[in-house]
Amino acid sequence: MSSPGSLCPTVKASEILGDKWTLLLLRELFFGSTRYAEFQRALPRISPSVLSARLKKMEQDGLVVHQKAAGQQRGDYRLTAAAKELAPIVDSLARWGLRWARDQLCDADLDAGTLMWDLHRALDSATLPDGRNTLCFIVSGADTSQWWLVIEGSSVDLCNEDPGFDVDVYLTASLAVFAGLFLGDLPVEKAVNNGEISVTGAAALQRSVSRWFPVSSYAEVRPQSRSA
Asked: Where are the transmembrane segments (predicted)?
């Protein structure tokens, strides 16, 4: 239990929402994630013990309810009315952070798993040709990794192991470049032209990469100088 000391409702609210994992879990819930495994994939840096503890506390604080089918240990986490009221607040926090704290983001804040989860969620399948499309993202650097997006109809699946389908397009860049493209800091066409990202494969998809490359819903939020 928190120690007493203030009747200020702002302080009390911050005691519930002040933890970064709570805010990130709320973000995932607002984006539609409901299962424990989905939270793990979206937030690979959170340990299972911390994830379980945060979800339990969110349930105790009245932010989520855990709905389990008979005989099942795990189920869906659903937002309560109190949590749904936080949606515009979390949205405003994200916009404020991108506008006024972008310069404090550093390489240590980048995580390939989290970014690829965001990319897979942001990709608009309607911008790709009909049928199955398989995209392979190669994150180059000290710890090179590969990720696949398999798109069929409105379904977009993220794989960190080869799904076994023919790849239509390979995209190779550093994690920082992929993050910059996703956040709207770097136009895709410019990154291709200056060699910061390599796009190889189906010619039609190469030509249209700037149209289908997934970008954040906050890409229009531009950083501001706090000294202004």
From this structure: none
